[in-house]
Specification:
The chain has 386 residues and is α/β, with parallel strands linked by helices. Helix content is 42%, strand content 12%. It folds into two domains: 68 residues; 300 residues, Rossmann fold. Helix 5 links the parallel strand 3 and strand 4. The longest helix has 24 residues. InterPro entries: AB_hydrolase_3, AB_hydrolase_fold, GDXG_lipolytic_enzyme. Pfam families: Abhydrolase_3 (PF07859).
Length: 386
């Protein structure tokens, strides 16, 4: 019996809700399928049929998952990924200091499951790469085209198939970013009352530390994330800069969630975008409630890690930020990018992809936005190359 079947059979409410939810939403989706076949009356005239229906399906799915509070279990064994899977042991506790370590947090580092695509980085090859003894990126000198991607997408509270998504990202990166790319899709702990901030940040930091431990020089690493995953990339970058640790050669953010507050969710709920974008209000509310630590006031430093808008910071890494013009949180993303660019010494590029919704990059197979995702990757590649 699968884990999901066990959960539902032990919680009758979920079964009843599932039947009721889809008995209402399947007819609604069929109605939208008919309506969206007529271009002039689509909710978003700029979208094609596949994007319109993909967004509607994702929005319904996110609402369903948020109400039943279903979280996909992390993959902690090889499974179908076989030798491409790696279980990363927690690094030495001294790596986690300040807001990421005791006594600031009760959250302890745990093993991290990750999947390589198209194949793992050969340790011997990584160790032989030029510059593998560099401790820092020389400020002012553009790094060479980075070769290795450390990725994680999805929300703070929802998971994706790591094998499928790592393959999708790797395929795009190979053709449109850097032909020698190896993608490590790291699975952070999904947010809950047991695993609020900084659990997910600890996991992504452990994955980055693992890649460096293979002999890959920091300047050959790109941290890449989308939505909440992009938020976590920013948190790791902030931590590396604050602690004087080796920073990666680049960072690529798609649709970063930069304002993780209840007030921001309320504003989104009143926006026009909340009626057509893939983001759904219950999902955002769940993410805020689960990721933000409960029962204590947060310091300004912690706020900067959790909700980076209005908390810019200095970093050596080149930072590429992308958002669709029809993203429901586009304004907060563009404002954050400007704030980062205004910090002396930062190298930031903000790129708008016209007429795209939130997170069109990771969800391109469903939304039919592969062409736009590839163009954004090429733009990021050119920026990182300097």
């Amino acid at each position: 019996m699968s884990s999901s079947t066990t959960i539902w059979s032990s919680q009758p409410f979920r079964t009843l809700y599932t039947v009721g939810f889809w008995s209402v939403n399947i007819p609604h989706l069929l109605y939208l399928a008919l309506r969206n076949s007529i271009a002039p009356i689509r909710a978003v005239p700029q979208w094609g049929y596949q994007t319109s229906m993909g967004a509607a399906i994702l929005r319904a799915l996110f609402r369903y998952l948020a109400v039943i509070r279903y979280q996909q279990p992390r993959q902690m064994v090889p499974g179908k990924a076989q030798d491409r899977f790696v279980l990363i042991a927690p690094p030495d506790a001294t790596l986690f200091r300040g807001v990421l370590g005791a006594p600031a947090t009760a959250t302890q580092p745990e093993p991290v499951g990750a999947v390589w695509s198209p194949a793992p980085v050969p340790v011997a090859v990584a160790a032989a790469l030029p510059g593998n003894n560099d401790d820092k990126i020389t400020t002012g000198n553009p790094p060479p085209p980075p070769r290795h991607r450390l990725c994680r997408g999805g929300g703070f509270v929802t998971g994706w198939d790591p094998d499928e998504n790592s393959k999708n990202i790797s395929a795009l990166a190979t053709d449109h970013f850097d032909g020698t790319a190896h993608v490590l899709y790291a699975q952070y702990r999904l947010a809950s009352r047991a695993h609020p901030f900084p659990a997910a940040v600890q996991d992504l930091l452990a994955a980055y530390h693992h890649v460096l431990g293979l002999g890959v020089p920091p300047r050959d690493v790109v941290l890449m994330g989308d939505s909440a995953g992009a938020n976590l990339v920013l948190a790791v970058l902030r931590y590396l800069a604050a602690q004087g640790l080796r920073q990666p050669g680049g960072a690529v953010l798609f649709s970063p969630w930069v304002e993780v507050t209840a007030e921001a969710v309320q504003r989104y709920s009143r926006s026009v975008a909340s009626r057509h974008d893939i983001l759904d209000v219950p999902l955002l509310e769940w993410g805020v409630d689960a990721y933000r630590p409960q029962g204590k006031p947060l310091t300004q430093e912690e706020e900067g890690y959790i909700s980076p808008l209005h908390h810019p910071f200095r970093l050596e890494t080149r930072l590429y930020v992308n958002a669709g013009s029809l993203d429901g949180v586009y304004e907060s993303i563009s404002l954050f990018a400007r704030q980062m660019a205004d910090v002396a010494g930062n190298r930031v590029r903000f790129h708008t992809t016209e007429n795209m919704p939130h997170d069109y990059f990771l969800t391109y197979p469903l939304l039919g936005t592969k062409e736009e995702a590839c163009a954004a990757l090429r733009n990021a590649r050119d920026f990182l190359r300097g």
